[in-house]
Amino acid sequence: MGTKVEKLKINFKTLEEFKKFKEYGLQELSMLEDLEANMVDNDIESPFYGIYFGDKLVARMSLYQIDAKYDRYFYPPQNYLELWKLEVLPDYQGRGYGRMLVEFAKSFGLPIKTNPRVQSRDFWEKMGFTSVDYDMERDRGENPLVWYPEGVKAQ
Amino acid sequence: MGTKVEKLKINFKTLEEFKKFKEYGLQELSMLEDLEANMVDNDIESPFYGIYFGDKLVARMSLYQIDAKYDRYFYPPQNYLELWKLEVLPDYQGRGYGRMLVEFAKSFGLPIKTNPRVQSRDFWEKMGFTSVDYDMERDRGENPLVWYPEGVKAQ
């Protein structure tokens, strides 16, 4: 098979593939606008990683490094990754693609924070993520889950 | 009828009512834990407002004031309200309860930011909310909508 996680280039082809995912939103529309305004491909820094099955994008996530000075989740305070829009297309679920993406994110060795959809909590627990102590000022109704690499604790 | 918006007291009765809402999550569980630990009612500062129909809670929202120094949305930078978990129970939708809650939030005269579920965009537009210019570092995959009182602009 040779299935692998790759960084997605942000071009018209990728953005067209993104339309198949439920969590298509302002982020994708904004990228599309940028592309249209510049009339150039492949030059936008991409936070997206994905898995292709043949030439079809079947899974994706967004991953963005947050600077230590904004860290309100981990101790000692440090750079960490925020992960969002982890999604596998319905016909391709149950094949370990979600797990592959999360393992890829973990491979950077940084703590990870995500705000999962309520229905996906079991998956995240299997991946070693745990709830934080809710802080209204910081979390504002979200249900953040975090993953601690060795030596990292809650703030 | 005398339907009105009221600040919800956080006690066991209210938390039991919250279980009927879809967006029950870490915030509510954390409040429940606090109540159980202290064995006292009504003493937790509540960010929740709601509407009762008879003695049944049928609509709610969370509203929290963010300090101007954290304002990355409005110009001039100022205190603003973050609104989340706006929700009307299915049997009570279409009666203007959602609108009543939003009008209540607007009555403070502060700008408002919310991260709506995708399906509710039409409602928010009717309420005068607009999209922001997406900023990945700030918005991280969210689709924030904002409401500007007179004299306030985007940052």
From TrEMBL, chains A, B:
Q: Does the record carry Glycosyltransferase as a key word?
A: no
Ordered alphabetically, the record's keywords are: Acyltransferase, Transferase
Enzyme Commission (EC) number = 2.3.1.-
Matches recorded under InterPro entries: Acyl_CoA_acyltransferase, GNAT_dom, YlbP
Answer whether the UniProt record assigns the keyword Acyltransferase to this protein. Answer: yes
Record-level Gene Ontology MF annotations: acyltransferase activity, transferring groups other than amino-acyl groups
Q: Where is the N-acetyltransferase domain?
A: 8-150
SUPFAM superfamilies the record matches: Acyl-CoA N-acyltransferases (Nat)
- Give TM segment ranges: none
Superkingdom of source: Bacteria
From the Swiss-Prot or TrEMBL record, give the protein name: Uncharacterized N-acetyltransferase G4Z05_01605
